[in-house]
Amino acid sequence: MLQLEPGMLIWTWVTFIALFLVLAKVAWKPLLAVVEEREQKISDSLRKAEEAQAEAQKLLDEQQAKFARAQEEIQKMLKESKELAEKMKEEIVEQARAEAEKIRLKAEADIQREKQAAMLELRKQVADMAILAASNLLQETLDPQKHRAMIDDYINQLDQVKKN
Amino acid sequence: MMMFAFLTEVTETEKEEGLGDFIIHHIQNSNEWNVFGYHLHLPQFKPIHVLGMEIDLSITNHVLMMWIASLILISLFYFLFRKRKLVPTGMANVLESMVLFVRDEIAIPNMGAKAGKKFTPLLATMFFFILTCNLMGLIPLFTTATGNISVTASLAIITFLVTQIQGMVENGVVGYWKSLVPSGIPWPLIFIMVPIEIFGLFTKPFALAMRLFANMIAGHTVIFALLGLIIALGSVLVSPFAVGFAVFINLLEILVAFIQAYIFTMLSSLFIGMAMHPEH
Hints:
Chain A has 164 residues and is mainly α. Chain A has helices at residues 6-139, 144-163. Chain B is mainly α.
């Protein structure tokens, strides 16, 4: 039972070597080639995925930086326009105030002038009336009837003057 | 089924032979193939005499079993991997993961990535051949070729030769023989170390052959012995226990078949790897 038989040894070698050669061609070569191909593909895919992720991250960072810059720009512009508006508002208000002042001054001057003119006119009229009254007084002697009429007349005249 | 066929045969024809002889007879190599009780006689040739050795090249039962195992393996791999698919499915997936196990868990850790990939075909052939022979021994109709010391010895010799050749190819003839003796030992020890190391070269494949042979023989012997209890004790009442234990041992044998195929391949790759990288 524990004896080595040369015939069996030879047959085993022949069988094993034949099996090895056939399997190498039929099984191991295609099988291992497919496995290597698959491993290659997997590692390639992994590498590609990593690259794509890095690229995406880069783009994202860029976009975020751009966005932040734009935000800053907007803030700046907003501030500037606010300042401008404020300035313009102040200018306009100032201008309006000046205009109003000018109009007021002009109106006052006008009023003053009118008043002056009116006073002159009044003075002239009063003088006329005084002259008239005086002339009336001088022309007629006074009696109660006549006086009354004269005074009424005078008052009427005064009213007329006032109306004028 | 076959077991019972054997048993009925025993009761009829070979009872006088004794159980021990019967067990030995069924484990040993023979010149016939027992197919459902019919003894098929296999071709026999006259021994040739070469260099004073008598070489009997008859096709024995175990040679036939090895051929059947080879045919099973070749057709299995041929039909499953005929179509080139990037991701295998079903049975092809199972076989592929086993081949990858040989490559990634046996060859590459022991030999390094480059040599491991180079030796994967040899180691995978070894693994599948031993595994198929082991498993065939569990199927009625077939016998265990790996339960023959000549078969395991010749496989071990293949490992031995590959180890020596690869060691010399990798380190140079002189470098390889020098590397057998660990460097940095005091010189008087060399006289002890050299014989030990040379002796060790031969014990490795010897242990390899013995381990596989003994493991394969043992399970079968136990199964036959358990079933033989029925006849030895001459009572049908024993049969539930005997058959129950035999089934248990048979299941254990499936495990052993895988483990032994793994160990043989593992140690082969370890020896080849050690010869290639002696300092590690």
